[in-house]
Amino acid sequence: MTGEVTDPGGGFSGLPLEGIRVVDLTVVWSGPGATMLLGDLGAEVIRAECLTRDSRMAPTTLTKEQAEKSGYAGAAYPGWDPGARPYNRNASANWHARNKLSITLPPLQAPEGREAFLRLIEASDVFVENNAPATLSKLSLDYDDLRERNEKLIMVRMPPMGLSGPASDYIGYGPNFNALVGIAAMDGYEGEPPTSAGENYHMDEGAAAGVAMAVMAGLWRREDTGEGCLIEFPQSESLLAEMGEAIMDLQMNGRVPATWGNSHPALLQDVFATADEDRWLALTIRNDADWAAFVAVAGGELEEYASAGREARVAAEGEIRGAIRRWAASQEIEGLVEKLIAADVPAAEVMTELGVLADPHLHERGWFKKGYHPETGLHMYPGHAWRMSAVDLAWGRPFPALGEDNEYVYREVMGYSEAEYEAGQAAGYIGAERPR
Amino acid sequence: MTEPELQGLEETPGGRDAGVFSELRVLDLSRWIPGEFCTKLFGDFGAQVIKIERPGEGSLTRQAGPWPGDTPDPERSGLFLHLNTNKKSVALDLKLEEDRRAVLNLARDADLLVESFRPGTLERLGLGWDELSQANPDLVMTRISNFGQTGPYRDREASDLVLQALGGPMHATGSADREPLRKPANLAMYVVGRAAAAASLAALLRVKRGGSGTVVDVSAHEVMLSAPDRRSAYLLTAAYSGTNAPRGIRSAHRGAVLPSGPFACSDGYVMIYIMRQFIEKLLDLLADAELSEYFASGEVMLDEPVEARERLNAVLEPWLAGRTKHEIMREAQSRHIPMTAILSIDEVLDDPHFAARGFFHEADHPRAGKLRYAGAPWLMPDGWRLRSTAPALGQHTEEILREGVLR
Q: What is the distance between the alpha carbons of residues A87 and A76, in angstroms, rounded to a whole number?
């Protein structure tokens, strides 16, 4: 690896991925979530974008009036205002873009696009993409093509169903593939069919850290062997590890998981309405101690069940949950959770985002970070997924405007001459504004 | 050191004998899904993982089941069997001075230690970072907890549900007129474990480059808040415009005109996710001239979303009801429309796609017998391999401790 940073004692004092350059051709959620984690660790993540392609889930033009009419989608823009360049102001893209760089490439179908992309690959360590499997093949940008230009490259592809097999060309979003691995079938309100389920984009959540780990496994191996490699990250199969106990239960007992809703077969738990509109109490009773503590707080008709042990609670679960429901409905949420927590009962309000933004624990831990960008102004940004005592994870620019790093990447990374760079500008592919 | 004899395990075709992490030694002091999944990801890729378990009781995952015939048996818990492949088990009682010394000795030769006790527990036992880093300055100590090692919630009790209520996208999940809905099964706990594994590997990579050992602080709360299951984007949206994500419109990111979510069909359910760019293809699939004409007549989705949705569903739902989930998936996918069958886990295990890829691997466990296990989360050279099934409680105590004495 290059770009070593040493501490006064002579050891390495930088971030784990300092000096590692990542080409990021990912779109939507799971891929950008993965490359975000690599940027946190000090990698230079370059988002390869294109002025004629939407890589930020935002239109080229959108008026404030249209945004205000478009429901929650309009709320993704600061002050509900998409501004002159909505693609620079959209929370659905900016949430993952901290520390990243942005360049605009010519379309990859064009010879100059292919050559520019390959020059970027030559100068990089890692390439991550989450397009449909056939996309790169059509462009003759498979691993074998790229390896010819950079044999140490680690290429990570994240096809939802893998690169081979009868369903490998299936298209869809996270929920579609949740369905193919058994997750959607057990999602829904308690005892109700899967049609009662809400939004569930779990595959996106599951893949991000997995891909980050796979990239680092590739780098680890490269340190040992000097070789690059292709890593196939089939997002659906990666998720099947989360179904392990259901896979075992099926084989051991022929059982297929039911929809549990908020309940859990081994616990007494649910989400309860309180006296405050749309403010909800999440409560779990794990054992006799939790139960005794809870009954002491709740009192009233619940005292009737005060001495109920685990088996008795299971036997009377419907009645008990009914009694808790009646009790919770009479309680104001303010102060209620604090009382339960003081009694060491696992409880929380189901938090809205504005509630999370005000959370004292997160502020004490410095989780939210301030970020300023001329395109959006100053805002609080969600923080890192984890932290290390030895070094702070990277917190640089909150996001790059489209094409913001063209000059640095083309000239210094890809080695374009001034004349070549100016030719790209004149041809209209190096720029910062999408054609309307 | 000789490996104990293994039974019925498959070789990964083309793979070297050693996995990518074969130089790593991992001590696993955790007792629940996040920690055990974290260390599984190292063990399955070649690391030597030594699980420290309480004598006579063992990991909590041994007591969680499912068990064959629903008869509790710590050696046949499906959760434990799944999470503890490629690990060794050493029975040590951290309440005993002698056993704590053994842990410290093992930590001297370890690269990574993973724990998920309540914050402060290991300090009280004299196995905190001060002691561990003194024994081994290059050690990575990954500490998984509900709310992190610092801050006012540090010592709060929590559960999966409570953590999802605080951290996950739960308030925006479910029906508008009903209570918020959590993620099913133990999915959220696995997400925490995977994040801990990635964080651990990052810290190990830093040590490999010459950096010092470190504590990695993994707060389940923060893992969920930062995740791409929309919560992180929802938080930034709230910071940008003061708006909470709504619950109960099918996708929070657009209007509700286009069908997205689970729908009933003749033999079960399908998952449909139609974004704007798929509407033409969907109309072609449904082949209803009147409906196509209506959608072509103007900006109906913007101008009269309720009417547009009702007219679309009035054609879509009977179309679905006349077909099986596999028929729908085949027809839709042949036209590149995002519709898939909602499969239950028995159908997943029999699915021809995963079978063709050889995803599931059968192995024979001395007590639980032949079972199929979920396979590689990703494919790479020197990658995933099922080298051994889960250990019996304390199976390797003598072997590992003797090795320690000899050193």
A: 11
